[in-house]
Amino acid sequence: MTGGYEVDQFVDAPDEDLICVICRAVLRCPVRLKCNHVFCKECILQWMKRQVKCPCCRQPIDQNQMLVLFKLSKSIGRLPVKCRNAQQGCRATFPLSTEYLHSSSCPFEWQICPHEGCGQQVLRKDAQSHDQICSHWRQLCPMGCGALLMRDNQALHNCYRDLQRRYLADRRRQRAIAANLRRKMQRMQSRMAQIKRQVNLMCESLEVGELEVDAGEGTSAWTETTAPSSSHSRQRNTRVRFI
Ligand SMILES: [Zn+2]
Ligand SMILES: [Zn+2]
Ligand SMILES: [Zn+2]
Ligand SMILES: [Zn+2]
Ligand SMILES: [Zn+2]
């Protein structure tokens, strides 16, 4: 039975009074019977499943007269122990009651590689270097794009750079469209100016023609028209020369 704490775990050999006679280890959650003998709580409960007499003095055990020794439990908790990873190389010692604190950060604690399909055991201190070479390494893109990065595509993946490139390309395209529109507008504007000039020229020559008609001159290509002159609202028939 191994209900208590392993004797080898302690920095100094524990006092014989602290040893449970049932498990031969240091008392874990000690309880005292009516006869004053002390055992680990778990050990004496297991013992009582088979026997009802004290393992030391054979007196009958009265379950109602069992006392949990909290003070003794605390003193045992203060005893210095060695790290259970001493074999792997940890030299740390600490009070027994803080063991869980140390083991949760002990660099020599065995851990299983968290990457699916790997299953390799690695010391906590080597976890990072194993991560570098683990062929099952996978990670969601830390930029939050949702891509699952693997060892072989990780170096190529750069969603931020891709986004930046796409953004720049979009901007270039939009600028090109805007410049194109500007050029078209300029062409239309100059075309319109050209048409305006031509219209003006036509109007001018129409006026010249009317003046000639008014003066009663000119002999070629006369045509009758009843419409009033475009530039002068004169209410009379006139002749216009088409040029
Ligand atoms: Zn015990
Ligand atoms: Zn006894
Ligand atoms: Zn350790
Ligand atoms: Zn791995
Ligand atoms: Zn990404």
Strand-and-helix sequence, N→C? EEHEHEEHEEHEEHHEE
Report the sheet-strand fraction.
Answer: 5-15%
Quote the average pLDDT: 87
CATH 4th-level superfamily of the domain at 7-80: Zinc/RING finger domain, C3HC4 (zinc finger)
Q: CATH class of the domain at 7-80, anyone? A: Alpha Beta
Global Rg: 52 Å
Largest sheet report: 3 strands, antiparallel
CATH architecture of the domain at 7-80: 2-Layer Sandwich
The low-pLDDT segments are 224-238
What would the CATH topology of the domain at 7-80 be?
Herpes Virus-1
Number of helices: 6
Write out the distinct hetero groups bound to the structure: zinc ion
3D shape: rod-shaped
Detailed description of the structure:
This protein has 243 residues and is of the alpha+beta class. It has a domain at 7-80: Herpes Virus-1 (2-Layer Sandwich). It is built from 6 helices and 11 strands. The protein has helices spanning 41-48, 70-77, 99-103, 127-133, 151-154, 159-214; strands spanning 30-32, 38-40, 67-68, 80-82, 93-95, 110-112, 121-123, 138-140, 148-150, 223-225, 238-240. The strands form 5 sheets. A 3-stranded antiparallel beta sheet has the order 2-1-3. The chain is rod-shaped. The N and C termini lie far apart (127 Å). Bound molecules: zinc ion (5 copies). The site of one zinc ion (ZN) has 7 residues, from loops.
Brief overview:
The chain is α+β, with helices and mostly antiparallel strands and 243 residues long. It contains six helices and eleven strands. Residues 113, 115, 118, 120, 130, 134, 136 line the site of one zinc ion.
